[in-house]
């Protein structure tokens, strides 16, 4: 397969959360163009079944390929957990998830071999982080904890708020008692309340942000496959945003977290792909 | 059109919330059979656009008609707000929403003509309660407040919890300052935290539960159209439950709130309708 190194990278998520991954790619691979798709009509994926998430992911990949992307980042933890293995077998284009990069770094960082994972019910219940962590280091013990209120709290904008601190304190208590020394932020929204989580867990616990680790892994992968953008081709709009619903609301959220002005967001009918 | 009076009533919602409406129908119309559909693959509707909610509602109505229902209750506030008017023009079968019955009773109950409405962002933003309230009594002033954390708090099971009390106190403060004397629980999940809401609002504020009012309106409508079940036809499973995803999880929630054992829940592919 002949791939254009100056083609954009495709990034998708169930909604706005994956923008934290897009943000890390913008910061760490500034020459790369991005086509982002947020499945805002069908968000969230965290409470949906494997079959449904796999079907949604296949539609999105068909859409991103129609946009001529050279590689795809599944920025959604649930989609990475439920769909990535199968889709990689179906596609020639390189596809990265957010689970493996986070798990690899956590396995490297932990000293006491006790690693915590927080995420949606779907992600934590899938046990996917544990599977990867044990592949990298079989001696690691993994403690998972679903935190279903974190996403709505972040989307409410209560990032530094006593309610969020109380909810986080309650969710994380169990992991503190397990004396983990490394914690994977296993949901794309969680980096936005990273400081609250860090305060509760204390200095002895290292937080792993898979958004950042995935951007580094993308850099490595593109370099290895000789697909890094030459950076010579200037473009007025290097970042293109597509959603399946309510483009304006998405744009507001995007503008609040990206170091970049999102001028245009287009709504597409994802069920046609 | 010739309708069988012993046919079931169709009830649908974006997910589990509409079960509070099904529950009121079971309590107040015990001879009626029910076919319930919860769109658990695409929940929630509250943050989706009018077009998307209309499209989803049309698919569900096609499904319910395929099950031979004699009338349909749109138990979802967002679907009632966004889709009901248009769908009623397209269909011969009687279709009820949850907005109108709640608004009618609130307009009757209020003395100081200040009515509050709480619900999802979509429902409150639609202004649909205000439109109905003003139809019933133009002198009413309506104060709306979106409470996006209530649904995840209820689904987390934190019904009587300090966090829920704190969140509710914050959301409702604004309505207390407006000195409303009547409050519409404009989301199907909210009756499950009714006592917390009642405590915060105080004795001077009457709560209107549209689930109950809708069941009474259904009773009235079926009587008027001579469609009340004769109640002679016994059936082993008078209540049938369908979902678009994760049937087991739905069953657990249903069994926790219904005065009835939900033995079987079937998953269907709603996008085929």
Structural overview:
Two copies of one chain form a homodimer. Chain A has 273 residues and is α/β, with parallel strands linked by helices. Chain A has two domains: 9-97 and 212-272, Rossmann fold (3-Layer(aba) Sandwich); 99-210, Rossmann fold (3-Layer(aba) Sandwich), CATH 3.40.50. The first copy, chain A, is 45% helix and 16% strand. Chain A has twelve helices and ten strands. In chain A, helix 1 (19-28) crosses helix 11 (210-224), helix 5 (99-109) packs across helix 7 and helix 9 crosses helix 10 (194-201). Chain A starts with 8 loop residues before the first strand and ends in a 6-residue tail after the last strand. The interface between A and B is medium-sized, with 24 and 24 residues.
SSE map:
The structure is a homodimer of 273-residue chains.
Chain A: E1 9-13, H1 19-28, E2 34-38, H2 50-66, E3 71-74, H3 77-82, H4 84-90, E4 95-97, H5 99-109, E5 114-119, H6 121-126, H7 128-136, E6 141-146, H8 150-155, H9 162-177, E7 182-185, H10 194-201, E8 206-208, H11 210-224, E9 239-243, H12 247-257, E10 265-267
Parallel strand pairs in A: 1-2, 1-3, 2-9, 3-4, 5-6, 5-7, 7-8, 9-10
Helix pairs in contact in A: 1-11, 5-7, 5-11, 9-10
């Amino acid at each position: 397969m002949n791939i254009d190194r100056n083609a954009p990278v495709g990034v998708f998520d169930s909604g706005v959360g994956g923008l934290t991954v897009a943000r890390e790619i913008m910061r760490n691979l500034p020459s790369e163009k991005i086509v982002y798709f947020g499945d805002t009509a069908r968000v969230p994926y965290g409470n949906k079944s494997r079959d449904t998430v796999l079907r949604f992911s296949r539609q999105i990949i068909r859409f991103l390929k129609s946009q001529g992307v050279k590689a795809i980042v599944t920025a959604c933890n649930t989609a990475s957990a439920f769909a990535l293995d199968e889709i990689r077998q179906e596609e020639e284009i390189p596809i990265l998830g957010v689970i493996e990069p986070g798990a690899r770094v956590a396995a490297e960082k932990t000293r006491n071999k006790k690693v915590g994972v927080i995420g949606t019910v779907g992600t934590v219940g899938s046990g996917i982080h544990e599977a990867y962590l044990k592949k990298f280091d079989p001696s690691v013990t993994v403690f998972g904890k679903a935190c279903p209120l974190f996403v709505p709290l972040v989307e409410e904008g209560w990032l530094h708020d006593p309610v969020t601190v109380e909810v986080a304190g309650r969710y994380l208590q169990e992991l503190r008692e397990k004396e983990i020394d490394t914690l994977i932020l296993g949901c794309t929204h969680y980096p936005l309340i990273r400081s609250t989580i860090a305060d509760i867990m204390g200095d002895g616990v290292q937080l792993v942000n898979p958004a950042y680790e995935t951007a580094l892994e993308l850099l490595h992968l593109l370099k290895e496959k000789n697909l890094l953008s030459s950076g010579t081709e200037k473009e007025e709009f290097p970042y293109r945003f597509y959603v399946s619903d309510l483009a304006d609301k998405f744009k507001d959220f995007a503008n609040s977290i990206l170091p970049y002005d999102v001028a245009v967001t287009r709504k597409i009918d994802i069920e046609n792909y």
